[in-house]
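Lecture notes, part 5. Sequence design as translation. It can be helpful to think of inverse folding as translation between two languages: the language of shapes and the language of residues. The source text, in structure tokens, appears below.
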């Protein structure tokens, strides 16, 4: 690279007299470089800043030499008079080994300026991207049906959307032909405008009895085929036969109509009459209206009839689509000719009370307008990228899709401005809607960068702080971008809320930072993912690097990589300056401002963290070196015992879910973060939880009991206490301070399980009753589990799945619910039983009894605990435990507890340059723990 020793190769061009309705590739460019670079520099702004959800229009600013008057559009002596003006395309290309169009804009301002002498005349030019123009005004898109029907390859000969506003005296023809007449003068019939419509339409007209429509199709040449269509909603069954559409033709069958006929069931019949008025086609369709199959009453239907001449015969077909069904039938009329459609509407002499109707169209071809099928309900379920691309095609503004074609599904297409509609596609997929920098090469103006293009990408630029970054370099750590409580809604739908519940940025630790997003997704279920993804974006811990400045004139070796960068590209910066974390700076580009002249080129990057865009990928079944494979690990663990700064073995409590132990997942080694230090781990081993022993049952008549601790108890054990009082529904029990009640039974229930981590010096606990009376037996016993997580802030987090709890009617057996901790390996399952009788309980199959404590003190009762130690998740099917003794009411619970701990073998300490001893209970979590993609 010779730059900056030689002049930077920059070309400035204007597309003088360009036809902006034609493809950009047809524009002819004129080199105007000589007018620009003897006046200073050019500045280009593209994309957005961190935290700005939508990019503003790109801008190009420069000063043009106007001494010859060429840059004043209204100057008749200027060489470009009549060719230069507002909207003229302008572009800048940089060629320093690789040619790159840095931006194409459209002239937005050309204010002439001069100095006091009048000799130094110049024009500070502002050009902007196309979104500046698209964002002006508020003209909405037409409805999905209008855009689709009018945009067909062969448009209708006549088309009346019937979306006219209240107060209209006729219904406008879309292409400017004769309006459709509203007939209201027969028996007092009437038409209500702008009342209701399907998702793909604005509100349509509502007819009443003796009201009708009459539309004239412009005269055209017969082609031997035609199609007519309408959208209709018949709210309820109508007494008697009713004509719902009628049209006339110049063919041998001059009158056709669709008739709703009452019967068992009701049907829609296609009829056609000859010139003598005799019926020639009378086809009761298989369209059974009002039955449970079609559900056609009270829903929106699209109905169309197609005919085409087949030699001496006329083939015809009636088709329809509803919310849940699409069907058709066809037949042939011998010796008939198609002619052309002349009139189309609904007669005013029939009972159309409450019927909504619209989108009446007539074609001169056999078009099979399945377009009605998708447009009727506003393209609900359409992928976001398909909608954006279709909008571009329909509007003549090409929209490129960048990234894998795998986007979220959208709700009904809105009737809003074009740019607003595209922004919906951007929001649904958390994409980036940008202006194309070189529309001439691509014949497109806009680009939708998909979320999938951003996630899990490799860096485009790999930088080193001291070598490449220009001051000021000012990272920030503030609350500006924090969002830890997000509610997502959709138009006309429900809402879902997600709250951050782990890490350093939870509402419990820093307060609630709420936000909301309205996103046009297909279903309410999609909203959970939308809210969760934005919580993911809004809870990135640590420093942010909103701006990074590069001087390409001093680092010309960076130019080839910079040319490859786009909005959404990832860059990294190694060896940050002293005084801040030594971790690799990892960001994505949200936008930039670049300024260049003949010998200068600086770039200021607007950046956001790349961390939330590291998402889970399913790994190969064999060794998979993909850094994003199989790394989704949810809960933060804690160090079980303190370690030194050089320890190579770390024992951790993994909370509810364990870290992977599969050898393939350590290729490469996994990185973990603890106390600010990053360590590499080459393997992980699991030590399973174990059962220790149970103490004897202790019983009293409506009085406190003090069950003895089990034999062999020691520091770190999980002490479990099962206690109960016989008076179910009235009595409750409590325990000595320091124990945690596990939320298995309700707080007001008569039986409970409490736990505590053995601190090395423990006394027997006391269980105290309340609300009982004489004869209400109180029972309790202890049992111990070893190797359980001991560093949990709340021991209630031991429960990994909602327990199966039952209150059973009187019986000799004890029914229990099924449980399957399907995603949690290595659980200890407990079966807990209370029965109002001194019975011997047979444990659930596969469980081992810990203690069965029954008593006849006061009134009879039994409490029992049994356990099952799992290595892999095993289903416990629902069933009933046998028991001795009399029939009695009972309670049962099956609960899964997190068990075991893990030992991490460390292959490298201080991977990020930070090293220190770590205390017990220090949080440890996977570095770059992955999430699910949007």
């Amino acid at each position: 690279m010779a730059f900056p020793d030689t002049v930077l190769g920059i070309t400035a061009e204007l597309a003088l007299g360009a036809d902006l309705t034609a493809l950009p590739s047809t524009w002819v460019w004129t080199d105007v470089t000589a007018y620009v670079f003897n006046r200073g520099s050019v500045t280009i702004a593209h994309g957005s800043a961190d935290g700005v959800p939508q990019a503003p229009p790109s801008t190009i600013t420069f000063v043009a030499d106007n001494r010859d008057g060429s840059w004043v559009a209204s100057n008749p002596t200027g060489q470009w008079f009549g060719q230069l003006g507002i909207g003229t395309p302008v572009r800048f290309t940089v060629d320093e080994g690789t040619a790159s169009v840095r931006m194409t804009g459209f002239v937005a301002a050309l204010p002439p300026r001069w100095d006091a002498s009048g000799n130094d005349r110049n024009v500070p030019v502002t050009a902007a991207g196309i979104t500046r123009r698209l964002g002006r005004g508020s003209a909405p898109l037409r409805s999905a049906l209008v855009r689709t029907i009018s945009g067909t390859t062969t448009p209708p000969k006549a088309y009346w959307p019937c979306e006219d506003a209240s107060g209209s005296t006729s219904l406008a023809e879309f292409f400017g032909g004769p309006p459709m007449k509203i007939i209201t003068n027969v028996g007092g019939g009437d038409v209500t405008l702008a009342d209701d419509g399907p998702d793909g339409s604005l509100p349509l007209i509502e007819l009443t009895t003796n009201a009708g429509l009459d539309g004239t199709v412009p005269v055209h040449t017969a082609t031997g085929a035609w199609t007519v269509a309408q959208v209709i909603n018949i709210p309820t069954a109508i007494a008697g036969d009713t004509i719902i559409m009628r049209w006339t033709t110049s063919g041998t069958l001059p009158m056709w109509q669709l008739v709703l006929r009452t019967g068992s069931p009701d049907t829609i019949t296609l009829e056609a009459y000859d010139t003598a008025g005799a019926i020639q086609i009378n086809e009761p369709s298989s369209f059974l209206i009002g039955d449970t199959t079609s559900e056609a009453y009270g829903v929106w239907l699209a109905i169309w009839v197609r005919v085409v001449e087949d030699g001496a015969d006329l083939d015809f077909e009636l088709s329809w689509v509803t919310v849940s069904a699409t069907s058709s039938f066809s037949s042939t009329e011998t010796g008939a000719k198609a002619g052309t459609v002349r009139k189309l509407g609904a007669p005013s002499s029939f009972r159309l009370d409450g019927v909504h109707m619209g989108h009446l169209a007539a074609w001169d071809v056999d078009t099979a307008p399945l377009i009605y099928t998708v447009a009727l309900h506003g393209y609900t379920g359409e992928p976001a990228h398909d909608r954006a691309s279709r909008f571009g095609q329909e509007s003549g503004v090409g929209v490129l899709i960048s990234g894998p074609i795998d986007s979220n599904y959208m709700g009904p297409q809105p009737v809003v401005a074009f740019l607003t509609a595209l922004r919906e596609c951007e929001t649904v997929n958390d994409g980036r809607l940008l202006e194309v920098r070189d529309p001439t090469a691509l014949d497109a103006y806009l680009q939708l960068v998909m979320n999938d293009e951003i996630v899990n990408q490799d860096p485009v630029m790999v930088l080193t702080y001291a070598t490449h970054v220009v001051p000021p370099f000012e990272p920030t750590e503030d609350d500006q971008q924090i969002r830890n409580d997000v509610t997502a809604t959709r138009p006309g739908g429900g809402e879902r809320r997600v709250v951050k519940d782990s890490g350093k940025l939870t509402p419990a630790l820093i307060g609630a930072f709420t936000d909301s997003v309205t996103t046009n997704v297909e279903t309410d279920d999609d909203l959970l993912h939308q809210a969760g993804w934005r919580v993911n974006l809004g809870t990135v811990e640590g420093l942010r690097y909103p701006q990074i400045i590069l001087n390409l004139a001093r680092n010309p070796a960076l130019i080839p990589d910079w040319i490859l960068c786009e909005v959404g590209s990832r860059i990294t910066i190694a060896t940050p300056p002293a005084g801040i974390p030594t971790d690799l700076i990892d960001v994505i580009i949200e936008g930039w401002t670049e300024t260049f002249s003949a010998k200068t080129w600086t770039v200021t990057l607007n950046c956001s963290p790349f961390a939330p865009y590291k998402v889970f990928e399913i790994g190969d079944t064999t060794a998979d070196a993909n850094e994003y494979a199989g790394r989704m690990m949810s809960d933060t663990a804690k160090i079980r015992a303190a370690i030194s700064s050089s320890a190579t073995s770390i024992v951790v409590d993994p909370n509810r879910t364990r870290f992977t132990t599969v050898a393939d997942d350590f290729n490469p080694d996994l990185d973990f973060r603890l106390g600010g230090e990053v360590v590499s781990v080459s393997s992980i081993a699991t030590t399973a939880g174990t059962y220790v022993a149970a103490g004897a049952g202790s019983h009293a008549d409506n009085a406190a009991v003090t069950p003895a601790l089990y034999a062999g108890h020691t520091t770190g054990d999980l002490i479990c206490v099962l206690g109960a009082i016989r008076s179910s529904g009235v009595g409750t029990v409590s325990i000595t301070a320091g124990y945690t009640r596990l939320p298995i039974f309700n707080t007001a229930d008569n039986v409970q399980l409490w736990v505590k981590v053995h601190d090395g010096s423990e006394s027997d606990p006391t269980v105290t009753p309340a609300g009982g009376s004489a004869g209400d037996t109180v029972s309790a016993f202890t049992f111990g589990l070893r190797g359980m997580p001991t560093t949990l802030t709340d021991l209630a987090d031991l429960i990994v799945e909602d327990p199966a709890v039952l209150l059973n009617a009187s019986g000799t057996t004890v029914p229990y619910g099924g449980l399957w901790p399907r995603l949690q390996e290595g659980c200890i399952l407990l079966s807990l039983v209370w029965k109002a009788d001194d019975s011997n309980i047979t444990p659930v199959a596969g469980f081992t009894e810990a203690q069965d404590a029954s008593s006849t003190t006061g009134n009879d009762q039994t409490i029992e605990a049994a356990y099952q130690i799992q290595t892999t998740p095993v289903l416990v099917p629902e069933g009933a435990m046998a028991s001795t003794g009399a029939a009695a009411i009972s309670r049962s619970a099956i609960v899964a507890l997190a068990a075991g701990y893990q030992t991490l073998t460390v292959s490298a300490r201080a991977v990020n340059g930070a090293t220190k001893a770590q205390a017990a209970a220090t949080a440890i979590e996977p570095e770059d723990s992955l999430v699910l993609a949007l």
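The translated text above is only one of many valid answers, since several sequences can fold into similar shapes. Residues 290-294 have pLDDT under 50 and may be disordered.
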